Amino acid sequence: MTRVLPMPVREDGLPDRVTIYEVGPRDGLQNEKAIVPLDVKAEFIRRLLASGLPIVEATSFVHPRWVPQLADAADLVSDLDLDGPAPLPVLVPNERGLDRAIEAGCRHIAVFASATETFAARNLNTTVEEQFAMFEPVVRRALDHGIDVRAYVSMCFGDPWEGAVPVEQVVAVGSRLLDLGASELSLGDTIGVGTAGHVGALVAAFGEAGVGVDRLAMHFHDTYGQALANAYAALRHGITTFDASAGGLGGCPYAESATGNLATEDLIWMLDGLGIEHGVDLDAVVATSAWMAERLGRPSPSAVVRALT
Ligand code: HMG
Ligand code: MG
Asked: How many Å apart are CA 206 and CA 169, to the nearest integer?
Protein backbone atom coordinates (compact mmCIF):
# COMPACT_ATOMS: atom_id res chain seq x y z
CA MET A 1 0.00 0.00 0.00
CA THR A 2 1.17 3.53 -0.75
CA ARG A 3 1.05 5.96 2.10
CA VAL A 4 -0.85 9.05 0.99
CA LEU A 5 0.27 12.33 2.50
CA PRO A 6 -1.70 15.59 2.44
CA MET A 7 -1.08 17.54 -0.78
CA PRO A 8 0.13 20.99 0.30
CA VAL A 9 -2.10 23.68 -1.19
CA ARG A 10 -1.54 27.21 0.09
CA GLU A 11 -4.54 29.45 0.67
CA ASP A 12 -4.37 33.23 0.48
CA GLY A 13 -4.60 34.95 3.82
CA LEU A 14 -3.29 32.09 5.96
CA PRO A 15 -0.03 32.40 7.92
CA ASP A 16 3.18 30.82 6.55
CA ARG A 17 4.13 29.33 9.89
CA VAL A 18 2.50 28.47 13.22
CA THR A 19 3.79 27.54 16.67
CA ILE A 20 2.42 24.38 18.23
CA TYR A 21 2.35 24.69 22.03
CA GLU A 22 2.27 21.10 23.29
CA VAL A 23 0.15 20.54 26.42
CA GLY A 24 -0.04 16.72 26.55
CA PRO A 25 2.17 16.16 29.60
CA ARG A 26 0.15 18.71 31.61
CA ASP A 27 -3.42 18.94 30.26
CA GLY A 28 -3.27 15.30 29.14
CA LEU A 29 -1.84 13.66 32.21
CA GLN A 30 -3.69 15.82 34.79
CA ASN A 31 -6.83 14.07 33.65
CA GLU A 32 -5.71 10.43 33.76
CA LYS A 33 -7.35 8.27 36.42
CA ALA A 34 -4.15 6.34 37.05
CA ILE A 35 -1.06 8.23 38.14
CA VAL A 36 1.58 7.95 35.42
CA PRO A 37 5.03 7.09 36.82
CA LEU A 38 7.59 9.91 36.82
CA ASP A 39 10.00 8.16 34.44
CA VAL A 40 7.20 7.69 31.89
CA LYS A 41 6.28 11.39 32.13
CA ALA A 42 9.92 12.42 31.66
CA GLU A 43 10.33 10.09 28.69
CA PHE A 44 7.08 11.43 27.18
CA ILE A 45 8.41 14.99 27.38
CA ARG A 46 11.83 14.05 25.98
CA ARG A 47 10.22 12.25 23.04
CA LEU A 48 7.93 15.22 22.31
CA LEU A 49 10.93 17.57 22.33
CA ALA A 50 12.86 15.21 20.05
CA SER A 51 9.98 15.35 17.54
CA GLY A 52 10.63 19.06 17.09
CA LEU A 53 7.86 20.54 19.23
CA PRO A 54 9.13 24.03 20.07
CA ILE A 55 7.50 24.26 23.51
CA VAL A 56 6.16 21.57 25.85
CA GLU A 57 4.09 22.40 28.95
CA ALA A 58 5.52 19.97 31.46
CA THR A 59 3.40 19.91 34.63
CA SER A 60 1.62 22.04 37.27
CA PHE A 61 2.68 23.46 40.61
CA VAL A 62 -0.89 23.37 41.89
CA HIS A 63 -2.05 21.93 45.19
CA PRO A 64 -1.15 18.22 45.13
CA ARG A 65 -4.48 17.35 46.77
CA TRP A 66 -6.35 19.14 43.98
CA VAL A 67 -4.43 17.39 41.18
CA PRO A 68 -2.68 14.32 42.60
CA GLN A 69 -1.71 13.22 39.08
CA LEU A 70 0.88 16.03 38.98
CA ALA A 71 2.01 15.95 42.62
CA ASP A 72 5.50 14.94 41.45
CA ALA A 73 6.02 18.27 39.63
CA ALA A 74 9.26 19.26 41.39
CA ASP A 75 10.86 15.83 40.91
CA LEU A 76 9.77 15.70 37.28
CA VAL A 77 11.18 19.13 36.53
CA SER A 78 14.49 18.22 38.17
CA ASP A 79 14.73 15.39 35.64
CA LEU A 80 14.35 17.76 32.65
CA ASP A 81 16.72 20.15 30.89
CA LEU A 82 15.24 23.53 31.82
CA ASP A 83 18.05 25.36 30.01
CA GLY A 84 17.50 23.60 26.70
CA PRO A 85 16.33 25.47 23.59
CA ALA A 86 12.65 24.57 24.06
CA PRO A 87 10.76 26.22 26.94
CA LEU A 88 9.10 23.82 29.39
CA PRO A 89 6.39 25.95 31.06
CA VAL A 90 4.54 24.88 34.19
CA LEU A 91 1.14 25.95 35.51
CA VAL A 92 1.22 28.12 38.63
CA PRO A 93 -1.97 29.33 40.32
CA ASN A 94 -0.65 31.32 43.28
CA GLU A 95 2.43 32.51 45.16
CA ARG A 96 2.96 29.13 46.83
CA GLY A 97 3.05 27.56 43.38
CA LEU A 98 5.45 30.26 42.18
CA ASP A 99 7.80 29.65 45.13
CA ARG A 100 7.87 25.96 44.23
CA ALA A 101 8.46 26.71 40.53
CA ILE A 102 11.29 29.15 41.29
CA GLU A 103 12.90 26.66 43.65
CA ALA A 104 12.72 24.03 40.92
CA GLY A 105 14.45 26.40 38.45
CA CYS A 106 11.53 26.96 36.06
CA ARG A 107 11.97 29.74 33.48
CA HIS A 108 8.43 29.80 32.07
CA ILE A 109 5.13 29.67 33.93
CA ALA A 110 1.45 29.97 33.05
CA VAL A 111 -1.29 31.32 35.29
CA PHE A 112 -4.83 30.16 34.56
CA ALA A 113 -7.92 32.29 35.02
CA SER A 114 -11.62 31.68 34.56
CA ALA A 115 -14.06 33.75 32.53
CA THR A 116 -16.94 32.52 34.71
CA GLU A 117 -17.75 32.62 38.43
CA THR A 118 -18.65 28.96 38.78
CA PHE A 119 -15.43 27.68 37.27
CA ALA A 120 -13.34 30.21 39.22
CA ALA A 121 -14.87 28.75 42.39
CA ARG A 122 -14.52 25.13 41.36
CA ASN A 123 -11.06 25.26 39.79
CA LEU A 124 -9.32 27.93 41.88
CA ASN A 125 -11.47 28.39 44.98
CA THR A 126 -11.79 32.12 44.18
CA THR A 127 -14.17 34.53 42.49
CA VAL A 128 -13.48 36.07 39.07
CA GLU A 129 -12.47 39.29 40.83
CA GLU A 130 -10.32 37.60 43.50
CA GLN A 131 -8.35 35.63 40.92
CA PHE A 132 -6.63 38.83 39.75
CA ALA A 133 -5.45 39.56 43.29
CA MET A 134 -4.06 36.02 43.40
CA PHE A 135 -2.26 36.37 40.05
CA GLU A 136 -0.93 39.92 40.47
CA PRO A 137 1.97 39.08 42.82
CA VAL A 138 2.64 35.87 40.88
CA VAL A 139 3.12 37.73 37.60
CA ARG A 140 5.03 40.62 39.20
CA ARG A 141 7.46 38.38 41.09
CA ALA A 142 7.90 36.03 38.12
CA LEU A 143 8.80 38.93 35.83
CA ASP A 144 11.23 40.24 38.48
CA HIS A 145 12.93 36.83 38.31
CA GLY A 146 13.11 37.00 34.51
CA ILE A 147 10.45 34.29 34.23
CA ASP A 148 8.09 34.51 31.27
CA VAL A 149 4.36 34.36 32.08
CA ARG A 150 1.63 33.04 29.82
CA ALA A 151 -2.01 33.40 30.92
CA TYR A 152 -4.91 31.10 30.17
CA VAL A 153 -8.57 32.02 30.23
CA SER A 154 -10.88 29.04 30.68
CA MET A 155 -14.56 28.73 29.67
CA CYS A 156 -14.15 31.21 26.81
CA PHE A 157 -17.08 29.80 24.82
CA GLY A 158 -19.43 27.99 27.16
CA ASP A 159 -19.54 26.89 30.77
CA PRO A 160 -21.33 23.71 31.93
CA TRP A 161 -22.97 25.56 34.83
CA GLU A 162 -23.58 29.00 33.29
CA GLY A 163 -24.21 28.29 29.58
CA ALA A 164 -22.90 30.40 26.70
CA VAL A 165 -20.26 32.92 27.76
CA PRO A 166 -20.47 36.42 26.21
CA VAL A 167 -17.34 37.44 24.29
CA GLU A 168 -17.18 40.74 26.24
CA GLN A 169 -16.84 38.78 29.49
CA VAL A 170 -13.86 36.87 28.06
CA VAL A 171 -12.25 40.02 26.67
CA ALA A 172 -12.58 41.73 30.07
CA VAL A 173 -10.80 38.88 31.89
CA GLY A 174 -8.16 38.39 29.18
CA SER A 175 -7.30 42.09 28.94
CA ARG A 176 -6.72 42.31 32.68
CA LEU A 177 -4.31 39.37 32.54
CA LEU A 178 -2.33 41.07 29.76
CA ASP A 179 -2.35 44.30 31.79
CA LEU A 180 -0.80 42.37 34.69
CA GLY A 181 2.14 41.56 32.40
CA ALA A 182 1.38 38.21 30.75
CA SER A 183 3.17 37.88 27.41
CA GLU A 184 0.54 35.71 25.75
CA LEU A 185 -3.10 34.86 26.31
CA SER A 186 -4.37 31.35 25.58
CA LEU A 187 -8.13 31.27 25.06
CA GLY A 188 -9.49 27.96 26.33
CA ASP A 189 -12.58 26.19 25.07
CA THR A 190 -12.41 24.06 28.19
CA ILE A 191 -15.48 21.92 27.42
CA GLY A 192 -15.19 22.00 23.64
CA VAL A 193 -18.53 23.68 22.86
CA GLY A 194 -17.13 26.44 20.63
CA THR A 195 -17.87 26.61 16.91
CA ALA A 196 -16.09 28.31 14.02
CA GLY A 197 -18.16 31.52 13.87
CA HIS A 198 -17.85 32.01 17.61
CA VAL A 199 -14.06 31.70 17.32
CA GLY A 200 -14.01 34.51 14.76
CA ALA A 201 -16.27 36.67 16.93
CA LEU A 202 -14.01 36.22 19.95
CA VAL A 203 -10.80 37.03 18.06
CA ALA A 204 -12.50 40.09 16.53
CA ALA A 205 -13.71 41.26 19.96
CA PHE A 206 -10.14 41.10 21.29
CA GLY A 207 -9.01 43.04 18.23
CA GLU A 208 -11.57 45.77 18.94
CA ALA A 209 -10.24 45.96 22.51
CA GLY A 210 -6.72 46.53 21.16
CA VAL A 211 -5.42 42.96 21.64
CA GLY A 212 -3.91 41.74 18.38
CA VAL A 213 -3.59 38.15 17.18
CA ASP A 214 0.16 38.22 17.93
CA ARG A 215 -0.71 38.07 21.66
CA LEU A 216 -3.35 35.32 21.37
CA ALA A 217 -3.17 31.53 21.31
CA MET A 218 -6.13 29.16 20.98
CA HIS A 219 -6.68 26.15 23.23
CA PHE A 220 -9.37 23.84 21.89
CA HIS A 221 -10.83 20.72 23.45
CA ASP A 222 -12.57 18.30 21.09
CA THR A 223 -15.67 17.23 23.06
CA TYR A 224 -18.04 17.93 20.15
CA GLY A 225 -15.56 17.21 17.34
CA GLN A 226 -15.12 20.92 16.56
CA ALA A 227 -11.49 21.45 17.58
CA LEU A 228 -9.95 21.19 14.12
CA ALA A 229 -12.69 23.28 12.46
CA ASN A 230 -12.17 25.87 15.18
CA ALA A 231 -8.42 25.84 14.60
CA TYR A 232 -9.00 26.44 10.89
CA ALA A 233 -11.34 29.33 11.70
CA ALA A 234 -8.69 30.78 14.03
CA LEU A 235 -6.04 30.45 11.29
CA ARG A 236 -8.29 32.41 8.96
CA HIS A 237 -8.43 35.13 11.63
CA GLY A 238 -4.64 35.30 11.83
CA ILE A 239 -3.92 33.21 14.93
CA THR A 240 -0.46 31.62 14.76
CA THR A 241 -0.12 29.81 18.11
CA PHE A 242 -2.16 26.68 18.80
CA ASP A 243 -2.21 24.55 21.92
CA ALA A 244 -2.47 20.86 21.14
CA SER A 245 -1.96 17.58 22.92
CA ALA A 246 -0.13 14.54 21.56
CA GLY A 247 -2.61 11.78 20.85
CA GLY A 248 -5.53 14.03 21.87
CA LEU A 249 -5.08 13.40 25.60
CA GLY A 250 -6.55 15.95 27.97
CA GLY A 251 -9.42 17.36 29.95
CA CYS A 252 -9.94 19.14 33.20
CA PRO A 253 -10.64 17.31 36.46
CA TYR A 254 -12.77 20.29 37.58
CA ALA A 255 -14.96 20.36 34.43
CA GLU A 256 -16.31 16.87 33.94
CA SER A 257 -17.72 17.64 30.51
CA ALA A 258 -14.22 18.38 29.18
CA THR A 259 -12.62 15.74 26.98
CA GLY A 260 -9.29 15.64 25.15
CA ASN A 261 -7.51 18.54 23.53
CA LEU A 262 -7.12 19.09 19.83
CA ALA A 263 -4.67 16.30 18.93
CA THR A 264 -1.23 17.52 17.88
CA GLU A 265 -1.20 14.99 15.03
CA ASP A 266 -4.59 16.10 13.67
CA LEU A 267 -3.43 19.72 13.71
CA ILE A 268 -0.17 18.82 11.95
CA TRP A 269 -2.04 16.89 9.24
CA MET A 270 -4.20 19.94 8.48
CA LEU A 271 -1.23 22.34 8.56
CA ASP A 272 0.72 20.09 6.18
CA GLY A 273 -2.22 20.14 3.79
CA LEU A 274 -2.30 23.93 3.92
CA GLY A 275 1.45 24.18 3.37
CA ILE A 276 1.91 25.92 6.74
CA GLU A 277 5.27 25.31 8.43
CA HIS A 278 5.43 24.06 12.02
CA GLY A 279 8.78 22.26 12.30
CA VAL A 280 7.41 19.07 13.90
CA ASP A 281 8.03 15.51 12.69
CA LEU A 282 4.55 13.97 12.42
CA ASP A 283 5.76 10.35 12.48
CA ALA A 284 7.77 10.97 15.64
CA VAL A 285 4.75 12.44 17.47
CA VAL A 286 2.53 9.58 16.28
CA ALA A 287 5.08 7.03 17.54
CA THR A 288 5.19 8.84 20.90
CA SER A 289 1.40 8.89 21.21
CA ALA A 290 1.20 5.19 20.31
CA TRP A 291 3.87 4.48 22.94
CA MET A 292 1.93 6.55 25.52
CA ALA A 293 -1.39 4.87 24.60
CA GLU A 294 0.21 1.52 25.42
CA ARG A 295 1.28 2.81 28.81
CA LEU A 296 -2.19 4.21 29.50
CA GLY A 297 -3.81 0.97 28.31
CA ARG A 298 -6.22 2.47 25.77
CA PRO A 299 -6.07 3.67 22.16
CA SER A 300 -5.42 7.30 21.30
CA PRO A 301 -8.55 9.30 20.43
CA SER A 302 -6.63 11.07 17.63
CA ALA A 303 -7.95 10.16 14.16
CA VAL A 304 -4.49 10.66 12.62
CA VAL A 305 -2.78 8.47 15.22
CA ARG A 306 -5.37 5.72 14.56
CA ALA A 307 -4.97 6.04 10.81
CA LEU A 308 -1.18 5.85 10.93
CA THR A 309 -0.71 3.05 13.47
P1 HMG B 1 -7.03 26.49 48.34
O2 HMG B 1 -7.43 25.24 49.04
O3 HMG B 1 -7.96 27.65 48.32
O4 HMG B 1 -5.58 26.94 48.85
O5 HMG B 1 -6.70 26.07 46.84
P6 HMG B 1 -5.16 27.92 50.02
O7 HMG B 1 -4.49 29.11 49.42
O8 HMG B 1 -6.33 28.15 50.95
O9 HMG B 1 -4.07 27.05 50.79
C10 HMG B 1 -4.42 25.87 51.51
C11 HMG B 1 -3.19 25.03 51.72
O12 HMG B 1 -2.71 24.59 50.45
C13 HMG B 1 -2.03 25.76 52.37
O14 HMG B 1 -1.32 24.79 53.12
C15 HMG B 1 -1.17 26.16 51.22
O16 HMG B 1 0.21 26.31 51.55
C17 HMG B 1 -1.33 24.99 50.30
P18 HMG B 1 -1.45 24.74 54.71
O19 HMG B 1 -1.01 26.11 55.20
O20 HMG B 1 -2.89 24.48 54.98
O21 HMG B 1 -0.53 23.62 55.11
N22 HMG B 1 -1.15 25.39 48.89
C23 HMG B 1 -0.31 24.80 48.02
N24 HMG B 1 0.51 23.75 48.12
C25 HMG B 1 1.24 23.44 47.02
N26 HMG B 1 1.17 24.11 45.84
C27 HMG B 1 0.36 25.16 45.72
C28 HMG B 1 -0.45 25.52 46.82
N29 HMG B 1 -1.35 26.50 47.01
C30 HMG B 1 -1.77 26.41 48.27
N31 HMG B 1 0.29 25.82 44.55
C32 HMG B 1 -5.56 26.44 44.75
C33 HMG B 1 -6.38 27.06 45.86
C34 HMG B 1 -5.44 27.47 43.65
C35 HMG B 1 -4.21 26.08 45.29
C36 HMG B 1 -6.31 25.17 44.26
O37 HMG B 1 -7.60 25.55 43.88
C38 HMG B 1 -5.63 24.50 43.09
O39 HMG B 1 -4.54 23.95 43.22
N40 HMG B 1 -6.29 24.49 41.90
C41 HMG B 1 -5.72 23.91 40.68
C42 HMG B 1 -6.78 23.23 39.86
C43 HMG B 1 -6.16 22.73 38.57
O44 HMG B 1 -4.97 22.48 38.48
N45 HMG B 1 -6.99 22.57 37.51
C46 HMG B 1 -6.53 22.10 36.23
C47 HMG B 1 -5.72 23.10 35.48
S48 HMG B 1 -6.70 24.36 34.67
C49 HMG B 1 -7.11 23.66 33.13
O50 HMG B 1 -6.91 22.49 32.92
C51 HMG B 1 -7.65 24.54 32.05
C52 HMG B 1 -6.63 24.85 30.93
O53 HMG B 1 -6.19 23.65 30.30
C54 HMG B 1 -7.27 25.76 29.87
C55 HMG B 1 -8.64 25.27 29.40
O56 HMG B 1 -8.74 24.11 28.91
O57 HMG B 1 -9.57 26.05 29.55
C58 HMG B 1 -5.41 25.58 31.50
MG1 MG C 1 -7.28 22.54 28.77
From this structure: 11
pLDDT at position 135 over 80:
yes
Examine the residue annotation and report whether 156 is marked as an active-site residue of this protein: no
pLDDT at 253 over 90: no
Q: Which ligand is nearest to the CA of 189?
A: 1
Instruction: Write the DSSP string, 255-288.
Output: BTT--PBPBHHHHHHHHHHTT-B----HHHHHHH
Give the C-alpha separation, 303 to 224, whole Å. Answer: 14
Crossing angle of helices 167-180 and 196-208, in 10° steps, is 50
CB atoms within 10 A of CB 304: 22
**Whether this model's pTM surpasses 0.85:** yes
Round to whole Å and give the CA distance between 299 and 285.
Answer: 15
Structural domains of the chain, with CATH: 19-308 (3.20.20.70)
Catalytic residue among 18, 252, 280, 305: 252
- DSSP E strand stretches across the chain: 19-22, 55-56, 59-60, 90-91, 108-114, 148-154, 158-159, 163-164, 184-189, 216-220, 241-244
| DSSP sequence for 75-93 | HHHHTS-TTSSS---EE--
Query: Each residue of 89-104: b (16+ CB within 10 Å) or e?
Result: bbbbbbeebbebbbeb
